[in-house]
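User: I'm writing a tutorial on reading structure tokens. Could you give me a worked example: one chain, its sequence, then its tokens, then a sentence or two explaining what the tokens reveal?
Assistant: Sure. Here is the example chain.
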Amino acid sequence: MQAARRKGIAALCLIIALLAGATSAIGVFGRGDGTTESAVSIRGERYEYVTTGVYAFNAERVVAEGVGWDVLTLFVAVPALIACVVPVARGSLRGRLIAAGILGYLVYQYLMYAVFWALGPLFPAFVALYPLAAAGIVWIVSTIDLPALPDRFSDRFPRRSIAIFCGVMALQLVGMWIPRIATGLSGDLAGAGLLGTPTLAVQALDLGIIVPLALATAVFAWQRRPVGYLLAAVFSVKGVTMSGAIVAMLVSAWIVEGTLDVAPFALFSVATLVAGVIAFFVLASVREEALAQEA
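And here are its predicted structure tokens:
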């Protein structure tokens, strides 16, 4: 891989990290003073809507969860991506895989923000970030010799663990969201948890993107296909950040509302720890080789 190409990818990662850092910092510190007003949604449900800050006109619960997500991005995802810049510039395979996983997390976060949040001052940043992160993933993948990828991992690659973890995560999301969708379609809008929005955007993204990706990772990793190694590295890193973000969201909502959703908090805390262990073993099994051997 040519030096100019490596440095270009590293520069893009740094730009994305700085933009995501600034955006998430504004979300955390520009959330407003917490003032709310009660209003009825177009579907006839009454919610407390935030009226100040960059996330104004969203339901109070939505803002509380979003700020928690921003905290995880600001203090975990962004520093991790910045830490990948030098290894990526040097051509490290491990560095590129970690960067791709973090970029996958940012694609999901800011695509969700762009289609879920009420229109506000950060909307242009959301629309800029998710395609930039997606482009970064494509650029990184284009530098990896996929057919030769299995040889770049040692026998310590946790094939069974990643397959089981991804399969469980897919089933968990299906089990969580299908009943909620059915509840909403039956007319029980409160049970569906629309939170003042016209549709279930998170559920659409999870079932349309995360579940197929998790199942593909499970199957291809189990079969030792080259793409399975790539997906395993990306999904395990993304699993740590995504599960961690959900935990941060629940804690943030707990601080605002005074009650903790114990079951999902426990579930995703465990998922974060398990994903972290799997990501460690996946990345530890990477063999770094001479740049001359890479395409």
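What the tokens reveal: The mean pLDDT is 92. The two ends are 6 Å apart (CA to CA).
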